Amino acid sequence: MDTPVMTNAAREALIKRYGAKATPSIGAWNETIALLLAHRSIRAYRPDPLPAGTLEALAAAAQSAATSSNMQMWSMIAVTDSATKAKIATASQNQKHIEQCPLFLVFVADCSRNRRLGDAAGTELASLDYLESFLVASIDAALAAQNAVIAAESLGLSTVYIGALRNQPLVIADLLGLPKGAIGVFGLCVGYADAKAVNEVKPRLPQEAVLFHGRYGVTDETGLIADYDQDMGAFSKRHEMSDDTWSGRVLNRLSNPANLNGRDRLSTILHEMGFKLK
Ligand SMILES: Cc1cc2nc3c(=O)[nH]c(=O)nc-3n(C[C@H](O)[C@H](O)[C@H](O)COP(=O)(O)O)c2cc1C
Fold first, then answer.
1. What are the extents of the domains in the chain?
2. Distance in Å, CA 201 to ligand 1 centroid
């Protein structure tokens, strides 16, 4: 196969994403792909409010995502009130960007709306009690959120997801008045980046480690990860004042359930919140 000809803009973006040694050859480039490759999470925000109608634009982008069987089993709660954001931050490992950002979105895996639909119709929706429905709702919420992220970035806004919202799901549910069968699966800070906090693009694993052809399989995974550890180690030194490698962080994160910060209890809590997960 011919090697595709790449523009300088494409090559530069790929070097930022994969490092110079692991740059793949891509044969397509446009401003959408450029925007996607330039993504980075931002953890410090200016207090400036968003222009009128921005929230509705983000919601329209989110609702335009594909959704399983068009069941639309997700909802989104826009939080702008400082006191509520402060309480959410307290329940989410005190992440200061939750309080700083002018708009905090809570993405909800929401089986409750369709449950109400069933109740109104007098139809028992037995399938909602299966793990599959929770998975559908969570996938729907994630796809919608990522559309909102791309829309926000296209408008010059920045974002960071907040998975720590799942540390104390019952506290969040209480704060936001969530009904049974609805859980905040993650949050999203949206706002204008504080210029001092704008990082470089964070490198990703080389494509050979995640892109397989026809069948799962990777040659020299150890070597690929060792190279990535070097790149990520250098990135961490430059931006996070730590020399942790990617492997080190993954091993630390996944070796001890205490590092889940309360999320080790999630299956019990989900039951309490009305998800039967059969
Ligand atoms: C579902 C999800 C939850 C996340 N939760 C947090 C979080 O609680 N706090 C945080 O600072 N970053 C969080 N992140 C951001 C990731 O750390 C970030 O995306 C990752 O390090 C890659 O960096 P990048 O987005 O700048 O490329 C989360 C990302 C995802 C997708």
1. 8-38+200-244, 54-198+263-272
2. 13
Alpha helical stretches, state H, the chain: 8-18, 31-37, 54-63, 82-91, 96-100, 112-121, 131-154, 169-176, 207-210, 221-240, 246-255, 266-272
Give the pLDDT band (50/70/90) at residue 143.
Answer: very high
Any atom of ligand 1 within 6 Å of the Cβ of 235 = no
Helix/strand/coil (H/E/C) assignment for every residue in 165-179: HHCCHHHHHHHHCCC
Q: Name the residue of 36, 41, 96 to mutate for ligand 1: max ligand atoms within 8 A of Cβ.
A: 41
- Spacing, Cα 159 to ligand 1 middle (Å): 9
User: Mean pLDDT across the stretch 25-39?
Assistant: 96
Domain spanning 54-198+263-272: CATH superfamily: NADH Oxidase (3.40.109.10)
- Per-residue pLDDT tens over the stretch 158-193: 999 999 999 999 999 999 999 999 999 999 999 999
| For residues 76-94, average pLDDT | 98
Ligand 1 nearest atom to the CA of residue 93, by list position: 8
Q: How confident is the model at residue 1 (pLDDT cuts 50, 70, 90)?
A: low
This prediction's pTM: 0.97
From first CA to last CA, the distance across the chain in angstroms is 48
